[in-house]
Specification:
MetI-like fold, 14 helices, globular
């Protein structure tokens, strides 16, 4: 009962801190992106009348006495934006009254499309690449970690340790370029970029084109899982209860699987949970290198084109996923190991 009360108090505190953090980042993102000059591609090139009328309705511009439109001060835009989130504004176009999107509109990525429509339309390739990456990296990383722990200080452990340190140290974009150069341009085994979408994400052509970005995203995860698994399992294998298990007649393999590996998963399980929660986040660098039209490339594109509303929505989505993921991971420690009390160490 006490543990349940402590957990509830801890969750409430973390939720309040999460909301406070989210609001601070929201304000910073809103101000910083609007301090950048508006890109020419984001201007009223397609329909200037609609552009200015909707900008005025959203509080981004105001009409001066000379009939020209001027940008509204940033702080005033912020207050209007928050008000629009609660009560969406209306505007007149072609003699009809329309209700505007709460999050605004895209002016360059997809003309007059709402940011939520654009973001959710980019989910499929990002989710597929992340799911394939998890399927590849989790068993391979855990398996390498177990193998290294059982071969501690032997040549197999030393060689794999060097490989893992290289994978951790080398930036992901370097791995991506090397894979693209060797397997796509030199050997010609795999396509260098993602295949065009032809109505299905589960075709052989689409799967083949996603192999290189999936491998690129998996390198860091494989190295991380192997390193943590090796460290935790090595410590558990030298514990007193493992000696007791062996004296009771269990073989080394049985003792490792039934006792050592289960105990070593306590700090590793939250990493796996965080990996699953990051399925929607994507990778800005890897998606850009392999021309994957996903969430990560959308975030970069919104900055490059100064598409304010799309950037704000995508950035807040990223931040929200990260904050929720951090909270779930912290809570999972207490679920995996009941001895851990939230905010109080081990009881």
């Amino acid at each position: 009962m006490r543990n349940t009360k402590e957990l509830l108090i801890y969750i409430i505190k973390r939720l309040l801190l999460m909301v406070f953090t989210f609001l601070i980042i929201f304000v910073l993102c809103f101000i910083l992106i609007r301090l950048l000059p508006l890109n020419n591609a984001s201007g009223p090139g397609k329909d200037s009348k609609t552009f200015f009328m909707m900008q005025e309705a959203l509080g981004r511009m105001r009409k001066g006495d000379d009939g020209k439109y001027y940008q509204t001060p940033v702080l005033e835009q912020l207050f209007v934006f928050i008000k629009n989130l609660i009560v969406p504004p209306t505007y007149e176009a072609n003699g009809e009254i329309h209700t505007a999107s709460r999050w605004g509109y895209s002016w360059s990525i997809s003309w007059l499309a709402s940011p939520d429509e654009i973001l959710f339309g980019r989910f499929p390739p990002t989710v597929l690449i992340n799911v394939y990456s998890i399927i590849l990296s989790v068993p391979l990383g855990l398996g390498l970690g177990i193998f290294m722990a059982l071969k501690k200080d032997k040549w197999q452990d030393n060689v794999l340790g060097i490989v893992i340190m290289l994978l951790i140290s080398v930036p992901s974009f370097v791995d991506s370029f090397l894979l693209q150069y060797v397997f796509a341009y030199k050997l010609g085994w795999l396509p260098p970029i993602r295949a065009d979408f032809n109505g299905s994400w589960f075709t052989a052509e689409m799967f083949t084109s996603m192999i290189l970005p999936v491998i690129s995203m998996s390198f860091g995860s494989i190295a991380g899982y192997a390193r943590y698994t090796r460290a935790e399992l090595t410590e558990v294998l030298t514990s007193d209860f493992m000696l007791l298990a062996r004296t009771k007649g269990l073989s080394r393999g049985q003792a490792t699987v039934r006792h050592a590996f289960r105990n070593s998963l306590v700090p590793i399980f939250p990493m796996l949970l965080g990996e699953i929660l990051s399925v929607l986040s994507g990778s800005i660098i890897i998606e850009s290198i392999f021309a994957v039209n996903g969430v990560g490339s959308l975030f970069l594109q919104s900055i490059q084109t100064r598409d304010y509303d799309v950037f704000q929505f995508v950035a807040m989505f990223y931040i929200l996923i990260g904050l929720i993921g951090g909270l779930v991971v912290d809570i999972s420690y207490g679920i995996v190991d009941p001895r851990i009390r939230m905010g109080g160490g081990k009881s």
